[in-house]
Amino acid sequence: MAERFLQCLLKTSKPSDKSLVKINWLSYRSKYFIFLQIFVLLKMAQSLSPNDPSSFSRPDLATTLHLHLSLSVNFERETITGVVNLKGKKNVPDVKEMILDIKGLTIFYIYDKVTGADLKYVIGETVADIGTKLSINIENCLESFELVIGYETSPKSSGLQWLNPKQTSGKKHPFMFSQGQPTEMRSIIPCQDTPGIKVPYSADVRVPKELTALMSALRVGNHIDLPDGNRLYLFNQPVPMPTYLIAIAVGALESRRVGPRSEVWAEKEIVDKAAYEFAEAEQMLKTAESICGAYVWGIYDMLVLPPSFPYGGMENPCLTFITPTLLVGDRSLVDVIAHEISHSWTGNLVTNGNFENFWLNEGFTTFVERKIIGKMQGSRMRDLQTLVGYVELRDTITQMGDDSPLTKLVPDLKGLHPDEAFSRVPYEKGSLFLRYLEQCVGGEDKFEEFLKHYIKIFSYKSINTDDFKNLFLEYFPSKEIHEKIDWQTWLYSPGMPPKVPDLDASLMNKINSLTNQWIAFNNSNEITSITEKDISKYSTIEVLQFLNQLLEKEPLSMKTLNTLNELYKFDSNNNFETKLRWLRLCLRGGDFTKLKAALNFVNSQGRMKYLNPIYRELYKNETTRKEAIDNFYQHKDEMMLVAAKTVARIMHLSSNTL
Ligand SMILES: [Zn+2]
């Protein structure tokens, strides 16, 4: 345990010579300080939930049954003022307190609506990034109670992003959106902020009348114009779900219908473009239903957010949040939509019990996403996507170090914030594991039957890896199957997976051959048969895989980079995925004329998938390090806090001032 905290305190990426010097210095000069910190961290961690190292709450003692949120959104002060009605139940008769998670919230009052009594509460200890423990005395409440909590968020709420009009497409109105996963809902509402329990919710939301409010719920009736000039929106989410899926966005929004269950929402300047890009949503939904069972959430709307949204997509029920970086005009990046649709079952219906089991959300979802692609575009495309994911996993694990405990499929998060463990590992290693299991049990059809069974059994529940494993072993009792599977290594060993599933690599052959030609060119500078036609018939995913393969090799020479650009015109390619890889290749090869383009790229959007690798490349090289740090400080306030913190960590900067 202590070793774990020591690792956490001394966390650098792979220790460079410099950081080893730092560790030595620390070990000789600051031993006392370190052990004091370890003691404090250990003590604080002890008060966290035994079932969830990222939450204080104890739903095993007293649990939330329903939440009603009454929210007023104040753009001038950048706060939400709210009242939460929390219907709860004592699970243990003599339980004295109900523990909620809060982060930066001001609590005004708490009373019990059932008895009418004011309740005493204690705002307890704070653990950095995790938040603060709010203990409410429920000793005198009945077995069923209803807490009414008046509160306000901080303008620095880590789960809310407030944008001024200049940061939007329309430039006239402000915009606000939330991001609850993994542990930020507690900075928006007081709640038992653990995915270990699920609750339905309803809400009434007041916003300035020229703006639209949306939530991860069904819209109830039309909005109501209030006498005070505000507008009231009502929502209801009858399906129980983890608190991290509660989501809100407010802005000057319009919608276009793209299917019987789907509307696309965005600012009017981009809404038509977005409607074109995501027009295949219904077809994907139907395909997902054929794999996973009926869609229970009623509607599937999509909301395109301003560019600072830090993720590709967020699977908020009824209303997927999407980055505008997907709007490339040719539907080539809509695998993100297939991914978010898949979460409607894996993640939102069957949910990880805590974030150590995040692969149950993301590995399953990546697996289902590729099954959807396979059914719509053919099994060779499914395999190509899987192989691309495999190369990206290798890239991730090389960067993290193949002995890093965070490369385990089920990592230990005690003393760590889930954001620190966030990487491609749960997505790609998890999905590869399921693909491997699929082959062990005799193919896609047999495993798909099991997948349906798994979703049926665990719908509306939160589970851990052992629940999945036990169900699998019960469903496939054959000894022959069991003997093949090395569960321990797949689940609990760091590094690359022990086995690579058999995949159809035929689509890879031409990409491999093109990569080899370019490597030969790079090594010898000899003219080869490379022409501009080489990739003219490539799909976007094939181009990306070609660039991924080049990224795995030694840095390319300036001459090779220039020739690549002359033939394939990468400099003028505006697809964000292509741009990311091309800029990385150039920076890695020492082409610092691309510095400005790289900074423009990170400043134009806030998606962590794009920020992190570019900042990592810029930081790695002494020539570009200072510019990268200066640029970060100049633009950090335009980024969502989670993104700013991650980039600060990559560049070894203190996150205290963020
Ligand atoms: Zn996901």
Would you tell me which CATH topology of the largest domain applies?
Immunoglobulin-like
Overall pLDDT: 92
Report low-confidence residues grouped into runs of 5 or more: 1-30
CATH class designation of the largest domain = Mainly Beta
Overall radius of gyration? 25 Å
> Any guess at the CATH architecture of the largest domain?
Sandwich
The class by helix and strand makeup works out as: alpha+beta
- Determine the N-to-C terminus distance: 29 Å
Q: How many beta-strand segments?
A: 22
What small molecules accompany the polymer chains? zinc ion
Number of helices: 22
- CATH homologous superfamily of the largest domain - what is it? tricorn interacting facor f3 domain
Helix content: 40-55%
Strand coverage percent: 15-25%
Total separate domains: 5
Biggest sheet, open or closed, and with what strands and sense? 8 strands, mixed
Using the alpha-carbon principal axes, give the shape.
globular
Describe this structure as you would to a colleague.
This protein has 658 residues and is of the alpha+beta class. The protein has 5 domains: 2-46, no CATH class; 51-252, Immunoglobulin-like (Sandwich); 259-343, Zincin-like (2-Layer Sandwich); 350-492, Neutral Protease, domain 2 (Orthogonal Bundle); 517-650, Alpha Horseshoe (Serine Threonine Protein Phosphatase 5, Tetratricopeptide repeat), CATH 1.25.40.320. The strands form 5 sheets. Strands 1, 2, 4, 7, 10, 12, 13 and 14 form an 8-stranded mixed β-sheet that branches. Strands 16-17-18-20-19 form a 5-stranded mixed β-sheet, covered by helices on one side. Strand 1 (62-74) and strand 2 (79-90) form a beta hairpin. The chain binds zinc ion (ZN).
